[in-house]
Task: structure prediction
Amino acid sequence: MEAKITAILRKHQLSITEARKKILSLFWETGNALAHGDIEQKSSEDFDRVTIYRTLQTFVEKGIIHTIPTSDNSVRYALCKDECAAGHHHDDHVHFICDDCGTTYCIDEVSVPKVKLPKGFRAVQTDLVISGTCNKCEQ
Amino acid sequence: MEAKITAILRKHQLSITEARKKILSLFWETGNALAHGDIEQKSSEDFDRVTIYRTLQTFVEKGIIHTIPTSDNSVRYALCKDECAAGHHHDDHVHFICDDCGTTYCIDEVSVPKVKLPKGFRAVQTDLVISGTCNKCEQ
DNA sequence: TACAACAATGCAACTTTGTTGCAAAATATT
DNA sequence: AATATTTTGCAACAAAGTTGCATTGTTGTA
Result:
């Protein structure tokens, strides 16, 4: 575990620090996407709020995590797949946000369909975000 | 113009006030989506910040405007089509956010494709948000 | 392993963004 | 026109995000 974490950091030419190891392992442990607030709750005793902001920003820039747009002003972050590199994200899968429990999933099984845009529009990134009820909250 | 605005408000059983008329006409004039900040800039001398928050909230609840998720913690709002009613939005078109100028477009020509989700996941709303360069910023 | 160079962190202060309660003003109803 | 209802502005607050700088931690090199 620890080895995997440090390997990822080293691969992206980041120095190995406590904050980065902790935050990165949080993503591995939960599996799902996390908002800044989630991370703050789970590590506020260990790190300053500012460090979390800066760490998330660094991870996005380096292609370790990607953002998931939301309609409630609380951007979520999730681990990228290996193909993502600094400045070039390739996360063309669907994201699902549960209205009940708030959990955000990366639905890897489904890929985002290509969309034809009107003339002059050039797509760089496509986000397909679905909200509803997840398989745990359904009865 | 004024007549059209008041008709929309009345149709949704909202009392006709200066703030609502002004904010609603802003959406009609610009044509594109607006963030809270945009509206505040264009009408801060006329109305209090709080009024804008509450007006946008009311408009969303009544089905006059809908939200567009973003990755930068600045939810955008855009006019709904006629089919939207209180509590039931039907805005299954694609949204495009320009990385250059920040303009957010509703691409009505393209509709959001249906997506099959894994078992247990029930979709209520689907948002397809594409970012890149718009037809005005392209050269 | 010790040292210098560099990068990351914590702290403080601050700005921006969003929320709530309540009195005053505006709108609707009769 | 008078009253009931709704909306607004204000104030005070809470939460979220940013910036500069001194301190601490990490890395590469001798």
The two ends of chain A are 35 Å apart (CA to CA). Chain A has one domain: 2-132. Helices of chain A lie at 2-11, 18-30, 36-43, 49-62. The domain at 2-132 of chain A is CATH 1.10.10.10 (Arc Repressor Mutant, subunit A).
